[in-house]
Design a protein that fits this description.
The protein has helices at about 5-15, 25-45, 50-55, 70-75, 85-105, 115-120. It has about 130 residues and is mainly α.
């Protein structure tokens, strides 16, 4: 095949499709759990003067830890911060994640641990670069 013919075929074929694959149940749970954890950390940083924020249950979520379901239930049931809009929005996301995990995606979820303490005091993640790279 000549380079000219190859270029013509590529031109006629058009650009490659940029549509990503639709999200799976697992990817939706994973992204929503990361979003909830990020929102909780932002809430703690933005609203430290709001006394009720200090008394909310911590939200370090690991969807592979069986204790996460109880953690989500406890957070939604907490009676603190009834009038803080950011907390209400966060509770809605937590409720949505719980529903997805407990109903829609139950068969897609595999629990690798049941260490409830790990959700209270997570181990910080460090990145070690290979071969002493900086």
């Amino acid at each position: 095949m000549t380079p000219r013919l190859l270029a013509l075929l590529l031109l006629l074929a058009g650009p490659p499709s940029s549509k990503p694959a639709p999200p799976t149940c697992y990817s939706r749970m994973l992204s929503l759990s990361r979003e909830v954890t990020g929102d909780f950390q932002s809430l703690q940083a933005v609203e430290p003067s709001e006394p009720c924020v200090r008394y909310l249950p911590t939200l370090y979520l690991d969807i592979h830890n069986y204790c996460v379901l109880a953690k989500l239930r406890d957070f939604v049931a907490s009676s603190q911060c009834w009038k803080v809009a950011q907390v209400d929005a966060l509770k809605d996301k937590v409720r949505k994640l719980y529903t997805i995990m407990n109903s829609f995606c139950r068969r897609d979820l595999v629990f690798l641990s049941d260490d409830c303490n790990a959700l209270e005091y997570p181990i910080p993640v460090t990145t070690v670069l290979p071969d002493g790279q900086k």
